[in-house]
Amino acid sequence: MPDAFVDRLRAIQQSKNSAVCVGLDPDPSRLPSPLSGADAPADAVAKFCYEIVEATAEYACAFKLNFAFFEALGPEGATVLEHTASIIPENCIIIGDAKRGDIGNSARFYATAVFDHMHCDAITVAPYMGRDSVTPFLEKEDTCAFVLARTSNPGARDFQEACVCDDEPLYLRTAKLVNEWNDDHAGTAGLVAGATSPEALRELRQACPTLPFLVPGVGSQGGDPTAVMNAAATDEGLVVVNSSRSVIYASEDEDYADAAARAAKSLRDVLNGDAGA
Ligand SMILES: O=c1ccn([C@@H]2O[C@H](COP(=O)(O)O)[C@@H](O)[C@H]2O)c(=O)[nH]1
């Protein structure tokens, strides 16, 4: 029987001493100089992702592939995405940042695509359509659905902070429901909670002590990694802290892979409280 997702994540984090997730958001217009201006952007993106994975895997417990950047490459994008997922080492979790959300019958097919064909260990899911739209992503015990609770972007305030009942914001109501679904599905759910609101992170951790959190929003979006760890990392409650642009575009020049490695290592050290040591 395969290991439960959360057990595998915990073992990887412990063995690598890292909560870092490197976000692969490959934008052809931002590729470093040795790869820019290529006639075949899909090939350049594939090489870029390969070099970044090779250079940073030592410092990361996970990679997050944002599907938008691969889909925008056109028909070759799916091949580049699958190939990139296939070169990620065994001792890293693969998160498909696909933000799926549809009626249950359609969601089943999204789940098959992401878990069985794209070889992801986890996916991001938008919960707006409710329980039946999320359930198909909770059914494999070695995978995880990270459900959007309180996102990192300014627009998070539009709906997620609105009070729905008993003065409770929607993000907290969402998290409590996801906690129940998690209990019904042998622990295959997690939450997306942005680094830009440590207050929300703290509340979410209180409401959901054991759910793993995927935390984007450090680096380019300005969230404070130390505040994230203080608010949400506990012995029981794992956090996976994503940084995309500030790692993968750490240099525009020939040294881009080394620069990415340095950025990932530096984030790992800050998260571990080892910065400057
Ligand atoms: O609340 C959310 C959910 C997802 N994201 C995604 O994470 C990365 C962040 O990129 P940075 O370059 O580190 O800012 C990106 O793929 C977003 O689509 C998020 O930022 N916030």
From TrEMBL:
One of its GO terms (molecular function) is orotidine-5'-phosphate decarboxylase activity. InterPro entries: Aldolase_TIM, OMPdecase_type-2, OMPdeCOase_dom, RibuloseP-bd_barrel. GO terms for biological process: 'de novo' pyrimidine nucleobase biosynthetic process; 'de novo' UMP biosynthetic process. This is Orotidine 5'-phosphate decarboxylase. It catalyses: orotidine 5'-phosphate + H(+) = UMP + CO2. Its EC number is 4.1.1.23. The gene is pyrF. Pathway: Pyrimidine metabolism; UMP biosynthesis via de novo pathway; UMP from orotate: step 2/2. It is an enzyme of class 4 (lyase). Residues 19-260 form the Orotidine 5'-phosphate decarboxylase domain. NCBIfam families: pyrF_sub2 (TIGR02127). The active site is at residue 99. Keywords: Decarboxylase, Lyase, Pyrimidine biosynthesis. Belongs to the OMP decarboxylase family. Type 2 subfamily.
